[in-house]
Specification:
Elements lengths: L44 E10 L3 E8 L5 H4 L4 H4 L10 E3 L2 E3 L2 E4 L7 E10 L5 H21 L9 H14 L2 E6 L2 E7 L17 E4 L12 H6 L9 H8 L3 H13 L3 E4 L7 E4 L11 H6 L8 H7 L1 H4 L5 H10 L3 E4 L2 E3 L4 E3 H8 L3 H9 L5 E2 L1
Antiparallel strand pairs: 1-2, 1-6, 3-4, 4-6, 5-6, 7-8, 9-10, 11-12, 13-14, 13-15
Helix pairs in contact: 6-7
């Protein structure tokens, strides 16, 4: 699925470099809801700072973007950590909310036979793993560019454009690709850190719902995902999705595991007006305490959704319908469902599972179960 969203490619002015290379490229981005807005899951970059060790003047900051730093941001920049002692170079250095990877290159081509530089991120919060990885990748790529073209020691004026594009694209899209000539030299994607374990087994009666807008199927997507995606609407359960998409249910569950793993989707219960829900212990602490929050707080034991919707008709008329309100509460963990279970001497099954397997409503299934004296409902 990751291949569905093409990485951003930044365009800088074409200027000759040593060896006849030029810095340039073209922007190629698929327009979709997932990349058209700022990324709310990532810490904001307040500034990007490039520093190096001058052979006569010592450590100095060469470029920053924005060029004029706010006072609160400037206080976070400490030159002693940007250009540290030689023994610390070649390692990730975090100080406060700033993260960088100082690099030392020893060669007779430089004054004092050494060149030290660092491109660091100044963040609004302490650095997380995505920014630590990005700092390491940038250090490696800039070191290679310096070795090949003396990009920093003799052509550092081109670095202004790179810093500007890094700041803009990483803050806006969470990814950035920069070309030198026809070669992709810097490519960074600030991916969130996901849990290292796969989700639990997905049941046939589970209903997947997306937690954020998803782009339409793309030709580069896995074919199974492309078939399954249009049928995920927060209403269809897994077995129904498999039948509607003509995909084996095991493959449907594998595709859903990807969405769950990347926290793009969640699983909820089959919605029926005969269901009963209660506020959870997380209800009181939840924010925002808007009208949806207030209406969901009126759910009570013994009150079906149909009865609740009738009582709250005036409020619900100004909000999304009952189905969407219940889904909102479940996804945010502020309500839970009272789940009836059918029990026999040999087996226990949830009422949702029986409804999904027999393609019937909860009322129809309850009518059938009540006629069987061997079955007890709990």
């Amino acid at each position: 699925l990751n291949s569905a969203v093409a990485p951003a490619t930044s365009t800088l002015s074409s200027t000759s470099l040593n060896g006849g290379y030029s810095l340039g490229g073209s922007r190629k981005r698929l327009e979709s809801p997932s990349n058209s807005n700022s990324n709310p899951d990532l810490t904001k970059i307040e500034a990007i700072v490039y520093a190096e060790f001058h052979p006569k003047q010592g450590p100095q900051i060469v470029y920053t973007f924005p060029t004029t730093l706010p006072e609160t941001t400037a206080k976070k920049v400490e030159l002693d950590y940007l250009i540290p002692k030689k023994s610390i170079c070649g390692r990730l250095v975090c100080f406060g909310s700033t993260v960088g990877f100082p690099v030392i290159i020893q060669s007779s081509n430089y004054d004092r036979n050494v060149f030290i530089f660092n491109l660091a991120f100044v963040l609004s919060e302490p650095p997380t793993l995505p920014y630590k990885r990005a700092a390491s990748i940038l250090a490696s790529r800039l070191r290679d560019m310096e070795a090949q073209w003396q990009f920093l020691s003799k052509n550092k004026q081109h670095l202004k454009g790179i810093i500007r594009e890094l700041y803009s694209d990483l803050n806006r899209f969470g990814e950035c690709s920069i070309y030198v000539g026809d070669y992709l030299t810097i490519q960074i994607r600030l991916s969130r850190v996901f849990p290292q374990t796969l989700p639990d087994t997905i049941s046939d009666e589970a209903v997947p719902i997306f937690l954020k807008p998803m782009p339409g199927p793309h030709e580069s997507w896995d074919k199974t995902v492309g078939k399954v995606l249009p049928h995920i609407n927060g209403v269809n359960h897994v077995r129904k999705i498999a039948e509607m998409s003509h995909v084996d249910i095991r493959l449907v569950k594998a595709a859903l595991q990807h969405f769950l793993f990347t926290q793009s989707a969640a699983l909820i219960d089959i919605f029926q007006f005969s269901n009963q829900y209660l506020p959870t212990t997380a209800y009181d602490a939840f924010t925002p305490k808007d009208q949806r929050w207030q209406v969901l707080g009126t759910l009570r034991y013994g009150l079906t959704v149909a009865e609740w919707a009738s009582q709250q008709a005036a409020c619900i008329a100004r909000l999304p319908d009952a189905r969407h309100l219940i889904a909102y509460g479940l996804v945010n963990g502020i309500i839970r469902r009272l789940k009836p279970v059918a029990v026999t001497k040999r087996k226990t099954a949830s009422l949702d599972y029986l409804c999904a397997m027999n393609y019937c409503s909860q009322a129809e299934m309850l009518g059938s179960l009540n006629k069987d004296c061997r079955i007890v409902l709990q």
